[in-house]
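Hey team,

Filing this mostly as a record. A colleague (T.K.) asked me to run one chain through the structure pipeline before their review meeting, and I want the input and output archived in the tracker in case anyone asks later how it was produced. No errors, nothing strange. Just documentation.

Input sequence:
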Amino acid sequence: MKKVLITGVAGFIGSNLLDYLLEQTDWEIHGIDNFSTGRKSNVKHNLDHARFRLIEGSVFELTSLKDYESIFHLSALPRIQPSFELVSDHIKENLLASIHLVELMMAENHYPRIINSSSSAIYGTPELIPTPESEKVDCLSPYAFQKFECEKYFDLVSTRVPLDYVHLRYFNPFGPRSFNPENKFNAYSSVVGIFLNRKARNEPLLITGDGLQKRDFIHVYDLAKANLLAAQHPEKLNTAFNIGASGTVSVIDLARMISENYQFIPKREGEAEITYADVSKAKEILGWQPEHNLDTYINSVLG
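Output structure:
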């Protein structure tokens, strides 16, 4: 039986990926999390599953990867604004944790495929719309730069050792468990989850700037499918793929889909004016395409 590891398993994407892999495969799945941003309740329903084992701890506490055929690397501190304020913490979790995994592989001379969760943030505000993977890098935040650094380290190390990896550049994920109100640094928290949470609490939705900034929103189940397809691909890929819905919604239009009770707050620096994925590469090579709709999800939550 294939054995795989998910880092950051109790986070938004990690816990949904766990659900998806348990449903779609017969793999034995180990998941590690220190609950700095994830919540144990996100994986509680799987704790007694015969094919799942939870490891409570940090990625830095891992001492061996030799049992695993694939690693889904999701652990991170990935919100843009906090990366300006807590720079050292973000470097440790977003870059050094990834390097620790690579160093374990090199020490054991064992190279499981690592599906690395990267970000569309590396493009900044792109010139090409929709944006292909060949777009120039223009990092507007420490978080974006750390994600790009991680990609480049993998690329460079692979010139010396047989590293086997896939970078998945997520656009703007949404879906179940996307917002943890108990933790403002919640991993991969999206504006969709934040808005729905404030709506549920009868609070005004807070729109930064004029709200005309546009986002490509991708459902977490579609991200999970991309991770599985990347792990299953028969060839070594060592490349990056955009994972988005290949469409845009403005933040103000998103707010109006959820509530008429909204307010404007000052614009935040370091965030792109538009994200819009060209996903033709993922469609062609991975056989992946998005299947879930933002409107449908919002309507299902609002009832």
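Quick notes for T.K.: The mean pLDDT is 94. Residues 87-108 form the longest helix (22 residues).
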